[in-house]
Backbone:
């Protein structure tokens, strides 16, 4: 156990992790998920905030490499979402299901358009539209009468 428990944080190391840094980096470099590598090392990355420290754990001031960037240093990046075989299978099934639903929706739309284009479909929807028009007019008239108190409905058909 270190004399000072904060020594690990100050020096940027962790003594509770049972593997050496090099061993961990090698294992991560060699691991690939179904879409490719999961570990990337970049010799120069720019950061908008500088959090550099020297070997003693004291803040080290960097010279900004470009406008808008406060620091440039090596970085290690890990892929946030690993793709496993199970995840990939679930995504594939969801896509197949979505494709089936879309195909059925397109077929239903096509069939509806065919029906609307037919003589029977035109008559059915013309009758429905006429009934809806009568319903709306009667609702409008029931709340508001003309000057004589009589309701008159004049409709013309094509």
Residues:
């Amino acid at each position: 156990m270190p004399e000072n428990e904060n020594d690990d944080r100050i020096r940027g190391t962790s003594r509770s992790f049972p593997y050496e840094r090099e061993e961990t980096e090698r294992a991560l470099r060699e691991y690939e998920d179904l879409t490719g590598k999961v570990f990337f090392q970049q010799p120069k990355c720019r950061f908008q905030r500088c959090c550099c420290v020297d070997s003693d754990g004291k803040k080290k001031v960097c010279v900004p490499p470009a406008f808008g960037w406060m620091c440039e240093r090596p970085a290690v990046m890990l892929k946030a979402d690993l793709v496993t075989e199970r995840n990939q299978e679930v995504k594939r099934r969801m896509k197949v299901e979505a494709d089936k639903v879309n195909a059925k929706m397109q077929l239903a739309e096509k069939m509806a358009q065919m029906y609307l284009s037919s003589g029977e479909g035109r008559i059915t929807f013309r009758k429905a539209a006429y009934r809806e028009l009568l319903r709306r007019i009667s609702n409008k008239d029931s709340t508001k009468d003309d000057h004589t108190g009589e309701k008159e409905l004049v409709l013309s058909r094509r």
Q: What stands out?
A: The chain has two domains: 7-78, 85-141. The CA atoms of residues 44 and 74 lie 5 Å apart. Residues 7-78 form one domain.
